Amino acid sequence: MAESSNEVDAKLLEILVCPLTKAQLIYDRAAQELISVPAGLAYPIRDGIPIMLVDEARALSDDEKERLKPQAKPAAP
């Protein structure tokens, strides 16, 4: 069965990292965003396609950063 057009492929999520910090991303399915806590950015997902451009990302609020910090994983060396 095919995934919904708004779903991001799980294998793609495993390999994507923040283009700015190279940190792993947190997938927010409800908001359709990939979140980089170290960069303080949320990259949009449009029609199932992650838009990994810093200029297209929205800045996280201080509250969001604090709430998501425990889920964030450091960047690979």
Supply the key terms:
77 residues; N-terminal domain of TfIIb; 5-stranded antiparallel β-sheet; 5 strands; 17% helix
Helical content band: 10-25%
Enumerate how many helices there are, as a single number.
2
Poorly predicted tracts of residues: none
Major β-sheet profile: 5 strands, antiparallel
Helix-and-strand structural type = alpha+beta
State the CATH class: Mainly Beta
* Mean pLDDT over the full residue set: 88
Count of beta strands: 5
Distance between the termini: 37 Å
Strand % is 15-25%
Tally of domains = 1
Judging by the overall fold, what is the CATH architecture?
A: Single Sheet
Tell me about this structure:
With 77 residues, the chain is an alpha+beta fold. It has one domain: N-terminal domain of TfIIb (Single Sheet), CATH 2.20.25.10. 17% of the residues lie in helices and 22% in strands. Strands 1, 2, 3, 4 and 5 form a 5-stranded antiparallel sheet that branches. A hairpin with a 4-residue loop joins strand 2 (33-36) and strand 3. The mean pLDDT is 88.
Question: Which SSEs are present, and which pair or pack?
Answer:
Elements: H1 10-15, E1 26-28, E2 33-36, E3 41-46, E4 49-50, E5 58-59, H2 62-68
Antiparallel strand pairs: 1-2, 2-3, 3-4, 3-5
